[in-house]
Amino acid sequence: MQLKNPGKQRKNLFNAPAHIRHKQVAAPLSRELSASKGAKTLPVRKGDTVRIMRGDNKGFEGKVSRVDLKAYRLYMEGLTREKVDGTNIFLPIHPSKVEIRNLSLDDKYRKEILARKIAPEKSAKKAEKAKAKPKKAEKAIAEEVEKEEAAPVEEAAAKKEEEAVEEEAAPKTRAKKTSAKGGE
Predict the structure, then answer these.
(1) 95 secondary structure, DSSP code
(2) Taking the complete model, does pTM exceed 0.85, yes or no?
(3) Best CA proximity match to 48, nearest among 21, 77, 68, 23
(4) Residues 80 and 143 in one domain
(5) Which DSSP string do the residues of 29-40 spell out, in sequence order?
(6) Which structural domain, as residue segments, surrounds residue 83?
(7) Mean pLDDT in runs of 10 for the chain (184 residues)?
(8) Which strands sit side by side in the sheet containing 49-52, from one edge to the other?
(9) Is residue 39 domain-shared with residue 117, that is, in the same domain?
(10) Do 102 and 80 reside in the same domain of the chain?
(11) How many domains is the chain built from?
């Protein structure tokens, strides 16, 4: 059930179990990758190559070094800043601000996920091909049949209109009503 109350939405987000958090750390695939893999989004994992699409570091491309499910953030190799004391720290990036450029397919379970996402797409394409548009010759025949069927209907409609005009032109006579009791 969808919640409308913002406080409850935040509560659900921050108290979500790990299997739901993993899905919420998903990012869109690049166009090339989406076309080849048959999926639009996938959860980001360590080892994926991503490109930052928003913010100060827009355009930066690197490998994901860590995924923080608790904070809903990614950390990338090479994306650091220096603290005042001189130590370098990784910059956290929200997964909605990145695009996956290359997938790490070391995990057999991830390959199974991709196979499941591709299967429904193939069956949908087969259904579309089955409903392919008829050929030009078949279209022409269908149009001729429709015209022939429509002609008698149009003639009947014209006759009804003529009869209605004739009835209006004829003078209307009114018969006297007699009561059942035998009055006038």
Answers:
(1) G
(2) no
(3) 77
(4) no
(5) BPHHHHHHHS-S
(6) 6-130
(7) 91 95 95 90 95 96 96 95 95 96 91 82 62 59 64 67 67 59 56
(8) 88-93, 73-82, 61-68, 49-52, 98-102
(9) yes
(10) yes
(11) 2
